[in-house]
Structure formats: structure tokens, C-alpha cells
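input
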Amino acid sequence: MKQSNELFLLIKSMTRNEKGYFKKFASVNSKKGEGNYLRLFDCIDEMEEYDEKLIKKKFAKEKFIAQLNVTKLYLQRMIIKSLRNYYSENDPDIERLSAMIEITLLIKKQMYDSALRIIEKMKPIAIEYETHINSLFLSQVEYQIYLRKGMYKEILETGADRLANEKKVLREYENLCEFRNVQGRIMSYTQMEGHKQNESLQEINRTLELPLLKDEKNSLSFKALTHRLEILNKCYLKLGEREKALDTARNMRAAFKNNPERIKTLPYNYFVALNSLANRCLASGMHQEVLEYSQDMIDLVNDKTVALSDSQRFEMSAQVYEKRCIVYGRTGEYEKGIEYSKLSKQLIDTRPMRSEFTVTYLYFTSVCYFGMRDYNSALNFINEAINGPYADIRKDIIFCMHMLNIMVHFDLGNYSLLKRLITMARNYVLKHKFTTLDTEDLFKGINDMVKHASDGNTALLHGATQYLQAIAPNFDFLDIDPLLMWLSRHER
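output
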């Protein structure tokens, strides 16, 4: 039976300040004789990998070890309570949720006037941040208080406006849910498949025909507007219409620039807009613009006046480091790329990361090491990606890893191994249905290069490299910069 490591991951995700706060919280809130929880916390915190056998061995003489699962669950709940307290005044999402809890508790204690004061404070915040559920909650509990206090005159005076406002909020929320549903489907295709074109193109084309996307006026809130643009961006990118994708990315950023107050209230959405634009600029080789937008992104991360959680700032920093690693990998400044790759690694080691980010980190780090001709380091990252648990994540990047694997072993002169590696890459293409492009031309060119290199025929090798250089731009799912760099090494 596989041992659960959820508690381990939770502890490892905590910052130094969070851990310090937890220890103070636990010491105050634990009953006499419950110090075992802190000892267990410290034991797990010291581990590099979760090892339950080690815990049982270390605490073999302790009574709590007989019910280790119960103790772990209690410790996990205590950590969550401490984090809730820790962030109750400096995380905007938890602040709003804490206000809802406070209102509920005040109503239970019949402290109606105190609850109404919090409601009045939270109403404009809910509208400003477009948190529709919060708006509806506040409206409903305010109505309940009016009933309990016998404020019938106020019910009569505010009833019509309350109903109209609730209907408006419901319409906006339903509209936002519709956009989120479409966005979720399109993003899932992109993150699973990457930018390769296959049978999902029918779904993409059907999405573009949805009435919801036809007119900007169909977006009933600012969040819905940004979701609409992001959906269009992903669809155009999947279809290979890069100029349209770039235009929608620019429009996303412009929407925030035209509504600067939204940068303060919806900073993560603004980050998504900047990140999308940086990605489109990467695809178009506009590297200086990528660096400029990445600086805007890091400025946003460091702006303590905007409503961002620590986890969001963490993710945003990781995305910035990734962008810079990619840029320097493509401009041949490989050592700079490795610097930012190492910064990404520091983040990955401290908190769980989304699989698609890990895949891109592994790939572009291997590209930088390949560019530096540090083949052993490149192969470590390549093998981790190809053999890791990423079968359904960014299939286009995993294929690029297969190609990079071939290039590395070609440079190492491992010609006997290359036949098997090329077969693996071809099988990957067939398995994952890269159906709209004829990849056989690509594999033919590579096979010819291997044959001529192993035969020592430099003239024919030069011809094979020229052939591949000519057809490389035809493959939209292929990151051609490393391929072209590799081919240039073997032109003569």
C-alpha cells in the first residue's frame, strides 16, 4: 500500500515564517502532553523524502505511534488552522472568507448591528473584486438580519433594489461561469497536447463559433472580458494563427491598461495577460519584448500593495524565471539561461508545481545545457522529462525532448543508439496522433544525417542538414531554434 505523503507536502510547502508561526500557534493551542505533534512536525520537516518507516523507528517507544494516522491527521488540521490565522489579515481571499465567518458568528450571537457594519464594509469590496458569491451572501444575510430585528420598513424600502441587484449579480455570475467552462476545455487541450495540431481542431473551430465569443458585449463583467480574450488567444494559437493570437494577447494587456484600477483589484488576471503576451512574443521571436514584459511581471510580484497571495507570487516568480531561461536559451546566452533555471529549481524544490511548468522547465534547461555542449547535464533533464509522469502533459514539448535526445547522442557519436531513439520519437508521434503534418520528412532527414555521419561522408551530411534546415519551419509543434542551432553545427 502506497504511503500517504500529503502531510509531508504540506509541511514542505510552508515558508520559514509560516513554520515559525505554526510552532507558536501549536504551543499555545495544544493541551498539556500534546508536544508530540511538534516533534512529529520537526521530524517530517527534516526529511528530504517522506519515509514513514523512519518515523515509526524514531518514535517506537511513544504511545502516539500506535495511532500514527490519527496523529498525522490532527497535525495537518492544526497546520491548516494556523495558516488560516496567519493569513487572516494579509491575504485578500482569506480576508474575505474570514469576514463571512465573522458575520455568521455575530449573527449566531445576535450581534446584529456589528454584523451589519461588516456587511456595509464588505459590499463595495465584493463588487470591486467581482466576487459574485460574496455579494449574494452579503445581500442574503443582510435580509436575514432585517427580519430578525423586525426592520420591516427597511425591507419594504430596499426590497426592489435588492432583488434587482441580486438578479444582476446572478446574470454576471452565470455569464462568468459560461466563459470559465469554455476556458477550462480549451486550456485542457492546450496543456495536454501543446500546440500540435490534431483531431481536437474540430473542437477548437466549434468553440470559435460559439455566440458567447462573437461579441465583446457578451462579457458582462471585466473578468468575463479577460476570459473571452484568453479563450480566443488559445484557440488562435492552437490553429496556428499566430498573428491573431498576438493581437488578442495585446488586447488583454490593453484592457488592464485602460482600466488601471483593475490591476490593483485583479492583479493575478493582469499577470495572466502579461504572461500570455510574453508567450506570444516568444513564439514570434520578439525576445526584447519578452524581457520587458517579464520585468512588468516581476514588478507586479514585488508590489506589496496589490491583492496577491504568497502562492500566487510564488507561481508568478516561477513563470518569470522560465521566460528568461527560454529567451536566453534562444539568443545563445546559455549561461544566463542556466542562472534563471537554477532560480526556478529553487522554487520547485520548495513547493509542489503544476506538471506543465515542470515539463517546460526541464526542456528549456536541457536546451541551455545542450547549447553549452554540457551533454551530461542536458541528458539528465531530458531523461527526467521523457521517463517522468508526464504522459498527458504538453505532448509537443515531450516530443521536442525526444528530438533533443537525438541531437545530443548524434553529437556524442552514439550512432548505434540513434536508430532506437528515432524509432521511439516516431512511435511517440504516432501514438499521440500528430496527424496534420507529415513528420516522415523530418525523420527521413535525421536518418540521412545519421547514416552519412557514421559513414564519414561530409558532403552528403551537408546536403542532409540543408534539407532539414529547409523543412524545419513547416512543423508548428516543433521548437525549431535548437534544431536550427544543431544543424548549423554540422553544416560543414
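quick obs: The longest helix spans residues 152-193.
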